[in-house]
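Hi there, hope your week has been kind to you so far. Would you mind checking whether the tokens look sensible for this chain? I owe you a coffee for this, so here goes:
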Amino acid sequence: MATGRTDPQRRERILAATLDLITDEGVAGVSHRKIATRADVPLGSMTYHFTGIDDLLRQAFTRFADHIVAVFEQHLGRADSPEQAREAVTDLIDTLAEGPRRDLVLAQELYTLAARHDEYRELARQWMRRSRHLLQQHFDADTARQLDALIEGLTLHRALDGSPHDRELTRQAVVRITTA
């Protein structure tokens, strides 16, 4: 194992290992020892970089939320018209639903924590505000809120449904919500 002075990426590896462990075992399976082993760092690095397991989880989930917001930005940033924005939202739903299972699992784990703990609820709210802000670049605030819920719901349904989902159905739902 490398020392802290020669291992500038240690903190990032710990956060990545935390998200990987959550994906594999859920938040309930997280421990400093398991994360340190996955990240290939000394156990003492855990308390050097994070004040405790809650701090580590909050920072790891913040990193995950940043990743999802970047996916939103990538899709919505190239839209120049309402029709392009609708198509971008449809593409976004496809990307999220058909993307890595890891993202779906991490989102659900964060939602579960947010349902029980205020500090994670605030993290989830910040994530939703950021997502809605990106949607509001193309749609009014109420429509952005509805679209955000549609994106979350359809992503979950499409990822868990055993039968293929028709992209046209997603497009129609987006059009219904975004057309006055």
Observations:
- The chain has two domains: 1-50, 61-178.
